[in-house]
Records
---
Amino acid sequence: MTGAVERARVLRGATSLGVRSVFSLLVGLVYFSLLGRVVGAEGMGVVSILSLLYTLFPLAFTMATPTAITKYLGESLGRGDDEAVAGLLRRTLSLALCMGGVGVLVSWLLSYPLSALLLRGENLLSLQLLSISIGTFSASAFLSAAFGGFQRFERLSVIYFAGAVSGQLASTALLLAGYGIPAFVLSWVVENAINIALMLYLFPKVERTPARTYPIRPLLKFGVPLFAATTISYVGSNVFVRLLILGSFTLFTLGEYEAALRLAGVMSILFNSFLTSLFPHLSRVFGETGAVGVGRDANWAFRLSSLVFTPVYVGGALVSSQVFSLLLGSPFSDAALIFSVFMVFAIPANLLSVFLLSVQASGRSVEILVIQGVATLVQVLSCLFLVRYGFLGVSVGASTLGVVASVLGSYAFRRRLNASVDWREALRYVLSALLVIPPVLVSVAVLPQPVFLPVHVGVGAVTYFAVVRFSGGVRSEDLEALSLLLPKSLSPLVRRVFGGG
């Protein structure tokens, strides 16, 4: 396949994940608004603690092995090693069954002490339901790794869409019936159960019968340093920050932080879909051509993500007040400022993360551990220093982790892969997005009511397209890959809007 076709495949996978994620997130935004209004800011503080446990426990149970499965599946497919591929699929199924059961058992046994330690002895039923969701999430993480390795993101996106929407609809009915926090946790249980059922039905198959199950040692050799890196950064960015807010302020404040964090996650869903699709592609390229191909495609991903996602983050920061007013109303007014902080820091953190991902795809998980360790240390020290400036200071400190990790990842990319970073095009797109700020601020000042949010978005989009077009447009090779995603009737329009490079 040509380079453009290969890159279009990545974009097609990311788009498939992203589009269905957008639809599910539209449902999710309605659900998020209902949840915030039903449980209130203090209830959102409880949701924050439950969300913390929901992601922390599966992290410990899976030990980053799903990421290793995705990497080695992609790499084995790139080498044409059918025996390894078949063995990896068998190993994936066994790990999903084993770790799913362990997850339910261990987290159920810990529900009583966790209720006493974190929730004043309350919400025991929610924690017991959470144990089921933790086990099922751990199992689904292994199964989804196989889909990622085969780059079957169209199927995976359908599965995620069905699971997320079903879980949120079931939870919505129970929230309206007055079941409160347990209804929120049940959304995860339903979502994961549907995901597992569909993944097993659509699980990738190969004609070859493996002589043996793929050995666990290579998976752990790659996964354990990555697990340690993820754990360190997670403890710093989620556990430490939440406990610092809870200890320094109130449960109400933690609820506002959680609301800002969740909406920031919504804004990053398309970018995360892009990274999800990019990782197995880079792993496959590494198996085919080594570091040279990874360096080439990483710079392409850097340019493209700068073009597409920078205006999203800039625009999100500018209209945060209108968005929160529409979704949650006045009780969460302070969360809008925190959300803007997250959007500003997301620009360097997310855009440069493609280089950190490239280092990971090349198998250097020990370096990822060092990078995340240094970044987490900087973040913890920043939070401790800035807590004197209140809620905003902690949020700024928490946002430093992604920036530091991505900057160090860029350095490792240049040193270890002997590759250069193509700054020129990416910086032009970033500057073009920053030029959106004055007209959008004027639009917001003239029409401050939340109902005019679409007008502000339109002003920003038109301004950005115009600046990009007249500052040199988009490279022809990038336009070619983008055009392959669209119907032929729309391809000329895209070239007219972004052409010139």
---
Amino acid sequence: MALGVAAVALAAWEGGQVQSSTAAHISVLATIAVVLVAAVAAGRGRQALRVAPWARGPLELRRHLAEEPGTAVGAIVWTVLALTTIGWNLYSFARQRHDLPTLSRLFGDVTAHWAGRSAIFALWLALGAALALGWRRPR
């Protein structure tokens, strides 16, 4: 509970920083360092797989996709969505028109305000924590 309150407070404080200030950059770097150290500490000896089975993971994923058509359709949909987003960004960037904004321009509009910066930082923090710590399972 205290960790969640601290994360919300950090996101609110980060949202109040000027976008390109030294304090904002230092706090983001410190957050990355803390999450990486926490991931190493929490994951030591608790990985679900050893190195060899983990390295063979993509081969098993191909078999799983072949056996589960619903999973394959989901993977195709997400791939198409990602490629469409990349294509939109490339097209918008190449045309250099303001009526075709890039994602960085849209994020810039959102993060130009305190609430937007706080919300994006909180989402980034939650995603980082989930990726770094959420997949660790005890033996």
---
Amino acid sequence: MDENPYADGKIRTHTEGIVRAIVVGAAIFIAWIAPYAWYWRVAIFVAIMFVFGMIYPTAQNALAKRRGK
């Protein structure tokens, strides 16, 4: 098993769910206002979610190690 206790992707707290909803909403908003064709907007959304998918688990793992879980 991975050393990150949050590696399964479950939403465990209300705060975590709210943060994920805000990030998805922000990604949708940024892609919506982009002055490009619809397919570039989809690509921008996917790219934002990809970057978020790399940063968020790293931050969770760092916080978990700091708490000693």
---
Amino acid sequence: MNGWNRLFVVIAVCWVLVAPFGLMHEVNRPVFEALGDCERTAYRNYGASDSRVRLDLDRHDAEVKQCSARFARDFVTPPKLAGAMVGLGDGMLGLIGWGLILIPLALLWVVGKTLRWVAAGFRR
């Protein structure tokens, strides 16, 4: 194996290890935003001294508990993503995960081979 192939293998291994975490970050972003919005709304309605509805800390706690339950249901964890990528669970998430890993590596390989082919033409 020459140096370029070794470099590609190192890049591919690093990408395979890092890409799922980037995917989880992007998939979980709306979940975190929804949790924050829900908690702020519960605070404005029931938790503040100048609440819109009325000051009721028990109701505030119940609303926050509901927000947390929705968050836990929608949050993507590493085992959930790994399960989706091997065919268990959400099929669309698994396809997106494999696409995020394989498509950039395939493009890198094609671009690298093309550049080497072009450079070899100038060496003659």
